[in-house]
From TrEMBL:
Keyword Repeat: no
Leader sequence residues: 1-19
UniProt record similarity statement: Belongs to the FMO family.
rRNA-binding found in the keyword field: no
Keyword tags: FAD, Flavoprotein, NADP, Oxidoreductase, Signal
SUPFAM superfamilies for the chain: FAD/NAD(P)-binding domain
Protein name according to UniProt: FAD/NAD(P)-binding domain-containing protein
A Pfam family: FMO-like
One GO MF term attached to the UniProt entry: N,N-dimethylaniline monooxygenase activity
Cofactor(s) listed in the protein's UniProt record: FAD
Source organism, top-level taxon: Eukaryota
Length: 544
């Protein structure tokens, strides 16, 4: 892994007032020139943003930060299908009812697993007094506050579902034809056209569900007197109490898998099925098992030949698919024949041979820097994405991508030629392949961890500085304190847990308000915790 990190970083370096009461949902408004549902007569450029999570809000704010003389005749519209902003952080008003997908994978006990100052839009902090590892309520409030503070409301249209979007034109010019429906009135569909489409709909909605031989027979043969057997993706997980008196196997070791084993394992017998080289989170009361091989009518069989006969529930913490359904549908009566995005899990196409933008459910390609479509069907700036990278701090990376996209929309000459962008993408994929990684399986993951994630953001902003689109202050985009805090996230988590146990939250948070003060707090906590662990001979595997 160290080698691939070094190679990827080398490759990047050559490139480029808080309220305790939740507010009322944002009013669905049509106020403000060049932001209404109906097109304006003096528009020179029209832009539709899809999604009001961290990515959508980042690109909306950044477009509005462009000079007034640049964007004064632009129409900018953001469509959000849910009742408010906040993306995955907005709770679902209804409990999940499988197999119908819930609006969000959010569960009531969700807290961030990284300190919140590392997750902020640059220059916009969480309110004073926010716990360092906050619950989801704080995260949702942060996005609501961002919208209110920067007066973004008039551009946001809630309860709007983009049903289909297709390109009508050539590789040089044309328009997006977009069918927009109302969530509250499904039969009310409007067709609009736009010059640019920016997709920021997130990638935590369509679960990746694994299947094994014999699973249907196992599920359908619950022993008499036992809870009904189930195999459910973690998108349906809400409360650990739902699993009391059940024996549970959690499949996967990502963030949701870690939370599930920590929460469920404290209440009932729990196993965690992990790939070789993975380990359960510190403090988890679980028994580790290898990957599942298959099911029999009465047992779960693992790849080492062992089996369990007393399992009642399987929780699949197996991630999500990269799907954008509206790009794979053709707008009604549009005269368009080919969808903008082909969904093909078994495709043999690659970035050089693909005749259209393609998703294999793990990777959308070909894209320049995970953002601009290199489909030969339309210009590169016609379609862009915010928020595709995985294993990265969302708000700051969304902001970096938004800066890049905004300046490219203002002046497409900022971008290299399509041929050069495609060549760069192919080189990146070749680097991954040369080191044993399938780029079409890796997808949009930052394999090099925080180092690659930070280098990616720095490279985007550095590119704009070199092109004269941003002032060159000689600094990296990702501040040193963010780098430190991300690297020391586990130490900070243990430190904050000890602060909470001692009831000293208010003492540590007193007077902490600015970015610099939050950074200083984290430096102090790292020193405090590191010294304590040295004195007590404790660390990641022993601290409780």
């Amino acid at each position: 892994m160290v080698q691939i990190v070094q190679v990827v970083l080398s490759f990047l370096s050559i490139s480029l007032p808080w309220s305790q009461q939740p507010p009322q949902p944002i009013v669905d408004t049509f106020l403000g020139a060049l932001s209404a549902d109906s097109p304006q007569s003096n528009v020179t450029k029209s832009i539709a943003i899809i999604g009001a999570g961290s990515g959508g809000l980042a690109i909306l704010k950044t477009l509005l930060d462009l000079p007034e003389e640049t964007r004064s005749t632009w129409e900018i519209v953001l469509y959000e299908q849910r009742r408010d902003v906040g993306g995955v952080w907005l709770p679902d008003p209804q409990p999940p009812h499988p197999p119908s997908l819930p609006e969000t994978p959010l569960y009531p006990r969700l807290h961030t697993n990284t300190p919140h100052p590392t997750m902020t839009y640059p220059g916009f902090t969480f309110p004073p007094g926010t716990p360092l590892f906050p619950s989801h309520e704080y995260m949702w409030q942060y996005h609501v506050d961002y919208v209110a503070h920067f007066n973004l409301t008039r551009f946001i249209h809630l309860n709007r579902t983009v049903l289909a979007a297709g390109w009508k034109g050539s590789s040089r010019q044309g328009k997006w034809v977009v069918d927009v429906g109302r969530t509250d009135r499904p039969d009310d569909v409007e067709q609009r056209t736009f010059d640019h489409l920016i997709v920021a709909n997130g990638h935590n909605h369509y679960p990746r569900v694994l299947h094994w031989s014999g699973e249907d027979d196992w599920v359908g043969n619950t022993p008499l007197g036992k809870p009904k057997r189930q195999i459910l993706h973690s998108i349906f997980y809400r409360e650990p109490e739902d699993y009391i008196n059940r024996t549970v196997v959690v499949v996967g070791g990502g963030a949701s898998g870690r939370d599930a084993v920590l929460q469920v394992g404290a209440l009932t017998k729990t196993y965690q099925s992990l790939k070789e080289g993975s380990s359960p989170p510190d403090g988890a009361q679980v028994t580790v098992k290898p990957p599942i091989s298959h099911f029999t009518i009465d047992s779960v069989v693992f790849t080492d030949g062992s089996s369990l006969i007393n399992v009642d529930s399987i929780i699949l913490a197996t991630g999500y698919q990269f799907l954008v359904p509206f790009l794979s549908r053709i707008p009604k009566d549009s005269g368009i024949n080919t969808p903008a995005l082909i969904t093909s899990p078994t495709t043999t196409a690659n970035s050089t041979s693909a005749s259209a933008l393609t998703t294999n459910l793990r990777y959308i390609f070909p894209l320049y820097e995970h953002m601009f479509s290199l489909s030969p069907a339309f210009p590169p700036t016609a379609l862009s994405f915010v928020g595709l990278p995985v294993l990265i701090a969302n708000c700051p990376s969304d902001r970096a991508q938004a800066l890049f996209i905004s300046h490219a929309l203002a002046d497409p000459s900022v971008l290299p030629s399509r041929a050069d962008m495609l060549a760069r993408l192919v080189r990146r994929e070749a680097v991954l392949s040369a080191h044993g990684f399938d780029p079409y399986y890796v997808g949009h993951k930052m394999l090099g961890g925080d180092d690659e994630a930070q280098a990616y953001q720095n490279a985007l902003v550095r590119f704009l500085k070199r092109r004269g689109r941003l002032p060159d202050d000689g600094r990296d985009y990702v501040e040193a304190w963010r780098v430190m805090a991300r690297k020391q996230s586990s130490v900070l988590s243990r430190a904050w847990s000890r602060v909470e146990t001692r009831g000293e939250e208010a003492t540590w948070l007193d007077g902490v308000e600015t970015e610099g003060e939050w950074a200083d707090l984290m430096f102090r906590l790292v020193d405090w915790q590191t010294e304590w662990e040295k004195e007590h001979g404790q660390g990641p595997s022993t601290y409780a």
